[in-house]
Amino acid sequence: MAKKVSALATASAEVRGHAPERHRTLIPVQNTIGGLGEFTLITRVSAQFPTTDDVILGPGDDAAIVAAPDGRTVATTDMLVEGRHFRREWSSARDVGHRAVAQNFADIAAMGARPTTLLIGFAAPHDLPVEWAEEFTAGVRDECAVAGGTVVGGDMVGSDTLTLGITALGDLGGADPVRRNGARPGDVVACTGPLGLSAAGLALLEQGIDGPALCLSEHRRPSPPYTAGVEAARLGATAMLDISDGLVQDLGHVARASAVDIDLDSMSLRPDPELLEAVRVLGTEPGREQEVARDLMLTGGEDHALAATFPPGAELPGHWYTVGRVEQVSEEAQEGTVGDVTVDGGRPPSGGWSHFDRG
Ligand SMILES: Nc1ncnc2c1ncn2[C@@H]1O[C@H](COP(=O)(O)OP(=O)(O)OP(=O)(O)O)[C@@H](O)[C@H]1O
Ligand SMILES: Cc1ncc(C[n+]2csc(CCOP(=O)(O)O)c2C)c(N)n1
Ligand SMILES: [Mg+2]
Ligand SMILES: [Mg+2]
Ligand SMILES: [Mg+2]
User: Among 56, 245, 282, 312, which lies 20 to 30 A Cα-Cα from 154?
Assistant: First the structure.
């Protein structure tokens, strides 16, 4: 005879057994992921993801099987930690779902590849509302639809801190990957996608100021130019990356990997009118708005625009804007002295994100 387990016994085991003291909560357990349980949640979540041509076996077994039409698989992983990458007061669950996909598939695009599939590591406190998990999943599903990928698996665990660990896969479609190490003196540096908007949105949220919608939305749901990665590869890009930590800081990776210097032309950075408006409402001294907005474009992270170097004379579609040049390295330059990023030939503004700097 099947063993009967009362609802009360299940609920009290939930509270008694598995959660540290501080997680006891008055939220009715049936509305929390703890109340729903790991396996029901997995079933509900994984039902949301469509199968695509890249999926041979989706969620439900010990592992997924993903087609590799090119014979090579592009793989990357990035995490989002509550309090570090997002705050639930500032971003809805859907926003976080969109962002989780965007920041990972942007790395796939930055290799010159097409985003194909994702695996979602989901670590959350047991009193997280089921609605949050479902809305997050809807955001993932909708951003996947924009990028052209889908989810093939993941993991769900209990954790004091809400943390998403995402793995993204992509397909090169027979093209060479565009790495960080191919920039050559004389190449032009060009970007596609917004710069500075996410940082302005973050500043508005941090200061509790209601500012331009575009800055807030780009912070909550960045819009990487996914297809521009494959396009850049086709146009002969010599190096590429997405801007996660700030244009100057990220181009430093290209400069060092390629053993070149890069000079950026500040006047080529045209701040979006909504960025200028954000800078105004954030209290910038009148007359300095352009300068402060350009500094945000040079140092702000999390827009996930693409920055690439192209051989001189490359014909770039209009959505790519030239921002600088790869410098001729002087003959006297010693090994290890190249890899600088300058702005108008001088020191760049300070800024750019680096984990562990902030405690
Ligand atoms: N813990 C780790 N173990 C092995 N390799 C790592 C680890 N952390 C990062 N890397 C590798 O270091 C390289 C740079 O990582 P980084 O996270 O800075 O790049 P990114 O994902 O493009 O940037 P961001 O995380 O700011 O979006 C990547 O190739 C990444 O796989
Ligand atoms: C609550 C909150 N505080 C600060 C920030 C800013 N921030 C966090 S990580 C990062 C760089 C990219 O991260 P990674 O290298 O991990 O991809 C930036 C600019 C935020 N988004 N949310
Ligand atoms: Mg990373
Ligand atoms: Mg990157
Ligand atoms: Mg980073």
Answer: 245
